[in-house]
Amino acid sequence: MQVQRVAVPGSRAESWTVLGDDDIPVVPVEGWLAYLTAIDRSPNTVKAYAHDLKDFLVFLAHRGLDWREVRLEDLGDYVAWLALPPAGRDGAVAVLPSAGPHVGAATVNRKLSALAAFYGHQARRGVDVGELLTTWQAGGRRNGGFMPFLHHVSKGRPQARRTIAFKAPKKLPRVVTAAEMQAILDACEHLRDRFLFVLLWDAGVRIGEALGLRHQDIAAAECTVTIVPRVNDNRARSKSRQQRTVPVSAQTIRVWGDYLAGEYADLDSDYVFVNLFAGSRGQAWTYASVYDLVLRLRKRTGIDFDPHWCRHAYATRALRDGVPIEVVSILMGHGSVTTTASIYGHLTAEDARRALEAAGWFAGTQVTL
Hints:
Layout: E1 2-7, E2 14-19, H1 27-38, H2 43-63, H3 72-82, H4 105-124, H5 132-135, E3 136-138, H6 151-154, E4 162-164, H7 178-187, H8 191-203, H9 207-211, E5 218-219, E6 224-227, E7 244-247, H10 250-264, H11 287-301, H12 308-320, H13 325-332, H14 337-344, H15 347-358
Parallel strand pairs: 3-4
Antiparallel strand pairs: 1-2, 5-6, 6-7
Helix pairs in contact: 1-2, 2-4, 7-8, 8-10, 8-12, 13-14
């Protein structure tokens, strides 16, 4: 089995599917992935789910199981199977008890969430999946609104369900410090490259949002950048579905002006970031081109960074400088304040201590401790 990228007829959007050993799409999986594409889920999300379903189908093939007859105990076996290295999953290679799990808890939880959404979709289409959905509840947030089959009928009544989930260690967001960002900017050889990282640092936009930016989205007089969800020729994508406008500094607008005057010149293109020094001149810049630049900047600066760290740094600076979390959530394009809090909740204790220290809370106490 393999995961294959596919083009959507009559659209510039792309999707993914799972091909069986006969090189024909697996019908139930294809239907679900096509549904996700139709409701405008991110191609990267669809791709990840395609790989998750492929792994599950391979497991079922090894066990001789039909996906419609899977039980809760089979899912437990699947989780144990995921922990094995690929070479040991077919039983041809012995795995020592001391060997660590092949995948982490977060990956297992994501795969289980994908399966929950897949089975929920099939049940809504009238497919008989047995008692699986009434005995199994995926851990964590429900993916894609997944609820047990016939939830609308049994709402409020006791249900026998068991949760399968693993506690995954929370990863703190990685950030670029001001000193590191200065080194990165100084290492840029072109104004285009410098403006890209100035924008990431000063507006906190995603790399896909930057690559999809048009000149009309930048308002020089107002010092704002508007992120507009749209289909782009370079496959750049805005994860947020809602348009948002982000204030930027006058210095950022100045760097944009320098870039236009010094390198863009009279080039006829709507895109802000385009090929100028390699490839087809004027063609919209791609993810691959940006990461080639990142590799060069890593080598020049000795800083092992990722462009997304600039976004984390933006949110971290804003929250530590006292910007209300609901404002930061809007500027970041998060679906809700809950998303912002779940990512940057580690700041709460740190900032509370800083505020208490500023208020002299720890300087003296009214009782002897």
